[in-house]
Design brief:
Length: 251
């Protein structure tokens, strides 16, 4: 019986340039299309938080909000969020689980604003603070100036204290959003700093005056808000897990 030949040449069609072009076509994604996805993720997190709360209650760890003083042994903790209609994603908090001596159990929720620190060039704190408020309007809850020992300085054992800007947020999601924007700026600006800049800053702190006062008052161009990000030289404490941060600060 003679063999039958296929009516179509599948080999030639499979290797055609037209088919190859379609398989390698790249689709662009509109940024506006990502917003519904973000809202969906927030709804999923909210649903997961409600489910976890229901499970805790069924296991005997109802949330203790008010009443007589209760004392127990801490047996577990994890990050959570408190629902807030005005804040997408809710307010950041930590659930602490306790076992009482009489066999009872409960959980207590502690709210605490997540934050990280940014280091800026000496004397430029006001410009960077205003830039942060405008750049992350609706995301940054508060910007505070705090003074801490700079352990990354070569002579940190001398007790050199540096002024940092502390950026606080409603929840961890907002922190991560701001961190993704600030970190590349800080890394880029940090590479441009040289040893002379570091020495001048420490010497100014020890001497009580700014070595570059004459230069700053001698006709340098007026830096606007758009250029204030150039003064961000480092970002600190951005990688501390939220529940660990609360445990450290609350003691």
């Amino acid at each position: 019986m003679p063999s039958r030949k296929p009516a179509r040449s599948y080999g030639r069609n499979f290797g055609s340039g037209k088919a190859s072009t379609k398989s390698h076509r790249i689709k662009s994604i509109n940024a506006s299309a990502l917003r519904p996805r973000e809202a969906t993720l927030q709804d999923e997190r909210l649903h997961a938080t409600r489910l976890a709360h229901t499970i805790d209650e069924s296991m005997g760890f109802a949330r203790y909000e008010s009443g007589r003083k209760r004392v127990g042994w801490l047996c577990n903790m994890h990050s959570t969020s408190v629902e807030d209609e005005k804040i997408p994603g809710g307010r950041a908090a930590v659930d602490y689980y306790f076992l009482e001596d009489d066999g009872g159990s409960f959980k207590a929720t502690v709210e605490y604003d997540p934050y990280f620190l940014i280091a800026v060039k000496k004397g430029k704190e006001a410009e960077v603070e205003e830039w942060c408020r405008r750049k992350f309007e609706g995301i940054v809850k508060a910007v505070e100036r705090i003074e801490k020992e700079d352990l990354q300085m070569p002579n940190h054992l001398l007790g050199y204290r540096r002024l940092f800007l502390q950026l606080s947020f409603h929840n961890v999601g907002e922190l991560l959003e701001a961190r993704s924007s600030i970190m590349p700026l800080a890394e880029s600006n940090k590479k441009n700093m040289n040893a002379m800049d570091t020495y001048a800053e420490v010497a100014s702190y020890n001497a009580g005056f700014d070595l570059f006062d004459d230069e700053q008052n001698g006709g340098r161009r007026n830096e606007g808000i758009a250029d204030a990000s150039d003064y961000i030289v480092d970002i600190r404490e951005y990688d501390v897990p939220y529940h660990v941060r609360v445990a450290i600060d609350k003691g």
